[in-house]
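Sequence in, structure out. Go.
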Amino acid sequence: MDPYHRLIWDVWMPFLRKSILEWNPRQPDHLIDFIEQWAPYLPQWIFDNILDQLIFPILNREVEAWNPLTDPIPIHSWTHPWLPLMKDRLEPLYQPIRAKLSQALQNWQPSDSSAKAVLLPWQKVFKQSTWDGFMNTYIVPKLVTTMQQFIIDPRQQVLDPWHWFISWYEVVPLASMIAILEKTFFPKWLQVLNVWLNTNPNYQEIQRWYSGWRSLLPLAIINHTIIKEKLTEGLVMIDRRISGPVNVQPTPQPPPLPNVNVNYEAIFNRGVATTSSTVVSSFKDLVEKKASDHNLLFLPITNRTFEGKQVYQFGNANIYIDKNVIFVYENNQWVPLRLNDLIHRVV
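Output:
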């Protein structure tokens, strides 16, 4: 054996072994600092021996004794500091840690935020597939139940369960959050909206209700295709109810399968037929005509789009049109607005 190696092994190591046996694993910082300071001077095989034969067995015993329900010291506070030194050597500890966490979550309910505080530090430590599987097994079913029981009531909305659910959106796999919203939230949300629209409602209240719910969705969720479709479905319901019956006129020389031009002027007038001989054949044409009628500027803004839709200047407002619904930019967000209300706002 190399004389220096012999010196370290016979003289220095016994001292270190004795110190480690007296060491409190819940207080790792001093020992970590000591090993890091000596690491450049230690032969690799001695360094490996320290981590594998001295440190790991003690950490393993401490994990076995750890109880997540009663232990006041979070386990990540005394295991994670070892990650820079031990790296994958800690991997065998993760399965027993997950097993103990899963047992602790059996009676957990989403109203208890402490579970998230315990789990979150492990999100970047466990492999992504392992983390997602753990979330889908032990967290997602509880979130599903919460949203199944969630009551949507525009008159007196209680949002606590919603906040319990949505607080997990950066922790639970996004696909799972989207699935929960699609299957448990939006069917009820659309049903409530449909009932409300058929009770001679105040449309400004509905607009505020719609915008309020939209504002509760984090950006990562609201940009998902499924969520966009559900929100658009709600907008279409609102627009149809506001517009009333749609008058159609055939083209002057109909082909074998006649096309129709939607009379948006009649829609704007809530289904009252217009006597004008000019039929506005698109919703954009109607917006342009109303701008002209009120001496308002209506021009596309160069190189300005939102989600692929052209943004226009309408008077002093910026708008875009999506599926015959006007969205106006205000308070750093796009909100739906009736054409008549837009005109009153900018005139």
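Check: The two ends are 92 Å apart (CA to CA). The CA atoms of residues 294 and 347 lie 8 Å apart.
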